[in-house]
Specification:
about 40% helix, 4 helices, single chain, three-stranded antiparallel sheet, alpha+beta, about 90 residues, GIY-YIG endonuclease
Length: about 90
Amino acid sequence: MHYVYLIYSESNPEQVYTGYTTDLKQRFQAHNSIGSTHTSKYKPWKLQAYFAFCNKKSALDFESYLKSGSGRAFAKKHLWVEHKESTSS
């Protein structure tokens, strides 16, 4: 399987990350260890959502979309809703 996932920093909730992997469990553990230089400074991370795809191209296309301007707007409105509501309380 191919996964696109969204995570956010518990220590700095405004820090969010969208990524792609074929091993979600291992990749999530890497984000919360020293295995990922970009995200390790904002650990611990929480998983917000993930999407499973049967083929790599579909997953990478969806990841690219979520990282585009309209994709970020879509994610903010539909995918980050619970995260934003829990951090505003």
